[in-house]
Amino acid sequence: MKGGLLRGRGLQIYTWLVIAWLVLPIAVMILFGFNDTHGRYNTAWQGFTFKWYGKLFEIGDLTQALVNSLLIAVLTMLIAGVLGSLIGLALGRYRFRGSGAMNLVMFAAISCAEIVMGASLLSLFVTLAVPLGFWTILISHVMFSISFVAVTVRARVMTLDSSLEEAARDLGAGPWTTFRLVTLPMIFPGVLAGSMLAFALSIDDFVITNFNSGGTMTFPLWIWGATRVGLPPQVNVMGTLIFAAGVLIAVANALLARRRANA
């Protein structure tokens, strides 16, 4: 009895240590967004200030890099969300020639090392003489995130009750009406989860973006380049705001899920 209690307490301590280890970098980032630094290197605490939030967009190149990352992430979320949802719906609902190969390709894309995918996409663009830049980054992000959406939606589709769709068709609903009013609402949690995952994967990607960016700068690429001369506090502020937005979205999604469960 006493041994089991000690093991339980040890597991709790270990869990909290892991959580602290994961949260510590985020806490440091948030803290140094308020650092009243006067030099190029934002590494030593020099006082508390809110001024960097007022000067958030003072560095033009950094602001443009953030805008590029957000725009690419939103477009990736929309494009990969639609295409990946359709693939997931087909794989979860139907058995057709080539479905096994499609599953293999999807999981290969998920497990593939980023450096391999980045190099292969770069070779493709160079072979086709496609200029590297914003659009090649977008295509690359859609390519590696679409599998995550498809797998998420496929898992959701496989748990659906097909009798609801059959009932809708028995009542006179056509294929499109059945999909819009019955199927889509049932798979929407999976579509939303997959799309948000695509957004998260896109906005912080570095390796594949670095291969295919050309002259276009994204937020992670700008930070990597700035580490040689020192990171301004605005980087910490932008990172804090992105993290806060992610937390708010997660909380809102959890509240909506709880409301649907209690309805």
TrEMBL record:
Residues covered by the ABC transmembrane type-1 domain: 66-253
Q: Could you tell me the keywords of this UniProt record?
A: Cell membrane, Membrane, Transmembrane, Transmembrane helix, Transport
Please provide an example of a Pfam family that matches this protein in its UniProt record: BPD_transp_1
Q: How does it sit in the membrane?
A: Multi-pass membrane protein
Q: Which PROSITE patterns match?
A: ABC_TM1
Write down the CDD domains for this protein, in alphabetical order. TM_PBP2
The UniProt entry, under InterPro entries, shows: Bact_Polyamine_Transport, MetI-like, MetI-like_sf
State the protein's name: Spermidine/putrescine transport system permease protein
Q: Which organism is it from?
A: Microbispora rosea
